[in-house]
């Protein structure tokens, strides 16, 4: 078990390192970050001084070596825009994103799992059809459009909720619903099909045959066995929530990691981009590792030595 | 139901995309400031006009063209590139396979939309680059699925039999393995199609990708944010068109999966 976690962590480090190298390479190949960042009327002398100071004049191999050495120490350089340590800037935004993502994940599970289970248990009932309709619509509705429509309804027309920003609980309502909507739809569909699969198994028949109440058949024998595919997908989706957060945070001016990344890309603030890429890939792979460990707990058959 | 709605909605979108120049009542780029921000139902402008007085219906119709073009090109590019790489990686189980799967791991350690957006921001904006960025981020799914399928198909008896008869490797791969993997490629492609369309709109919405004044649904939604207090229709219609297209293509993909490859999960 410990060896497995250790090897996964080494793999994670390797993947993070490779993705940083890829982004570094793309950034350096894409053109001169200094010129793109400087005002139009700047003097050539100033450009050169700026470039010298940030080390853009050195050969690419030396720049890469310096970048790797810095990244190992958690030093991605200074934000070109904010003149502050890039990693610190990115780290400051993590709690907001975790708050939003965590709320959305809880909301997703609270809606999707009961909906999926009820749909499966009462298959082909009116409720099942309504649930299917809701999930199909939920999957097709782009989050940023849902966000705009909710802002129009609840902020512009009704004035119930703030259009954006962070502060009170009211600020969290719309962003977390928008972020949760798409994932809830997917997870509800998967829960339904996972529960249906298990309901056809012999041990469920046995449980019923020996006279167990429906609550125990569903609650104990069915749910636990359908948990594995649900956890797999929820884990994959938890990672994709980070991607969804980029868009949701931008619509609702939520001061998180995603919004910072979008702004850094728009401003070509590359130290911040690299620090954000680093942090996002670390978070993402750690989430996936956590999901893998959760399987072992849910299903002793895949438990590792 | 799935089949009917999926095929129907997708066909309608396709027809709109192809026939946009004939269906549109106005030139989608022609500004007329006297007519700016007219609500839906204004004579001559069924869905109203935007801040520059451009006809919204025309822009939404042309948006279908752009969305399907970008989605189609991306699906084609990723299916061919990802499919071929997956085919080779599954068939030749030596270092190419390992290298390819490591690249896939790196890409998959990053949310799709963020990866496509980052690539797009770095390689540059515009129509061609958004197609390239989405493809660069999206080929991995095919490579993985196809490699997995090839690994199992090549163990089948008919493949062994063909090999025993002295069929060459290339012929074995393309005549005996590929046709049996093709259904999964089709299913993945149809499921990815709506993802690409929505991702393109999201990326253009964030300010990358297709730039104004080109009538792309994403950049139209992005511009609509400044007018949400006065002109709801600018946000409502392009988004509804996008959602409807995604709905149709999703249903079509689901139906294809049920028919061709019910076990496949993407």
Give a structural overview.
- With 305 residues, chain A is mainly α.
- Chain A has a domain at 101-253: MetI-like (MetI-like fold), CATH 1.10.3720.
- Chain A has 12 helices and no strands.
- Chain A has helices at residues 2-29, 33-37, 44-54, 60-72, 86-121, 126-140, 143-157, 169-199, 202-209, 214-251, 257-267, 270-298.
- In chain A, helix 9 (202-209) packs across helix 10.
- Chain A is flat, with a radius of gyration of 24 Å.
- The model of chain A has no long low-confidence stretch (mean pLDDT 82).
- Chain B has 266 residues and is an all-alpha fold.
- Helices cover 72% and strands 0% of the residues of chain B.
- Chain B has 9 helices and no strands.
- Chain B has helices at 2-23, 56-91, 95-108, 112-123, 127-153, 157-164, 169-205, 217-224, 233-260.
- In chain B, helix 5 packs antiparallel against helix 7 and helix 6 (157-164) packs across helix 7 (169-205).
- The radius of gyration of chain B is 22 Å and the shape is elongated.
- The chains are: A mainly alpha (305), B mainly alpha (266).
- At the A-B interface, helix 1, helix 6, helix 7, helix 10 and helix 11 of A face helix 3, helix 4, helix 7 and helix 9 of B.
């Amino acid at each position: 078990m410990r060896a497995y976690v250790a090897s996964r962590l080494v793999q994670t480090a390797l993947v993070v390192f490779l993705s940083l190298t890829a982004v570094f390479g793309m950034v350096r190949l894409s053109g001169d970050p200094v010129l793109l960042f400087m005002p139009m009327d700047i003097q050539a002398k100033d450009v050169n001084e700026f470039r010298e100071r940030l080390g853009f004049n050195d050969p690419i191999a030396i720049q890469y070596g310096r970048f790797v050495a810095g990244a190992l120490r958690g030093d991605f350089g200074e934000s070109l825009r904010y003149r502050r340590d890039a990693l610190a800037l990115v780290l400051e935004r993590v709690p907001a994103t975790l708050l939003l993502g965590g709320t959305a994940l809880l909301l997703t599970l609270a809606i999707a799992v009961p909906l999926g289970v009820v749909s499966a248990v009462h298959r082909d009932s009116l409720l099942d059809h309504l649930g299917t309709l809701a999930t199909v619509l939920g999957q097709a509705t782009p989050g940023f459009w849902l966000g705009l429509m909710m802002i129009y309804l609840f902020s512009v027309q009704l004035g119930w909720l703030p259009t954006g920003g962070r502060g009170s609980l009211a600020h969290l309502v719309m962003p977390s619903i928008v972020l949760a909507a798409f994932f809830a739809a997917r997870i509800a569909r998967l829960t339904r099909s996972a529960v249906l699969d298990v309901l056809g198994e012999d041990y469920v028949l046995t449980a019923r045959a020996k006279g167990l109440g429906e609550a125990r058949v569903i609650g104990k024998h069915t749910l636990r066995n359908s948990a594995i595919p649900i956890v797999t997908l929820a884990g994959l989706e938890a990672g994709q929530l980070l991607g969804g957060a980029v868009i949701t945070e931008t619509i609702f001016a939520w001061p998180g990691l995603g919004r910072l990344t979008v702004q850094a890309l728009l401003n070509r603030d590359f130290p911040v981009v690299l620090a954000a890429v680093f942090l996002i890939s670390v978070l993402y792979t750690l989430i996936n590792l956590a999901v893998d460990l959760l399987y072992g707990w849910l299903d002793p058959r895949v438990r590792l030595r | 139901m799935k089949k009917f709605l999926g095929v129907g909605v997708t066909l309608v979108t396709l027809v709109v995309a192809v026939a946009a120049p004939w269906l549109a009542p106005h030139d989608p780029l022609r500004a007329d400031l006297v007519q700016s921000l007219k609500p839906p139902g204004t004579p001559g402008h069924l869905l109203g006009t935007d801040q520059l007085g451009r006809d919204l219906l025309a822009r939404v119709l042309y948006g279908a063209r752009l969305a399907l073009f970008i989605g189609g090109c991306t699906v084609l590019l990723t299916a061919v590139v990802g499919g071929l790489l997956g085919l080779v990686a599954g068939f030749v189980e030596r270092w190419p396979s390992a290298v390819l799967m490591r690249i896939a791991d790196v890409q998959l350690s990053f949310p799709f939309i963020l990866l496509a957006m980052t690539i797009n921001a770095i390689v540059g904006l515009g129509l061609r680059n958004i197609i390239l960025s989405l493809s660069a981020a999206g080929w991995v799914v095919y490579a993985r699925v196809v490699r997995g399928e090839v690994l199992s198909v090549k163990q089948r008896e008919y493949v062994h039999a063909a090999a025993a008869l002295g069929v060459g490797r290339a012929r074995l791969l393309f005549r005996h393995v590929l046709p049996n993997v093709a259904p999964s490629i089709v299913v993945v492609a149809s499921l990815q199609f709506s993802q690409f369309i929505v991702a393109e709109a999201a990326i253009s919405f964030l300010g990358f990708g297709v730039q104004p004044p080109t009538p792309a649904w994403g950049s139209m939604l992005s511009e609509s944010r400044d007018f949400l207090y006065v002109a709801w229709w600018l946000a409502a219609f392009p988004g509804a068109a996008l959602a409807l297209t995604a709905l149709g293509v999703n249903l079509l993909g689901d139906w294809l999966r049920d028919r061709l490859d019910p076990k496949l999960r993407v």
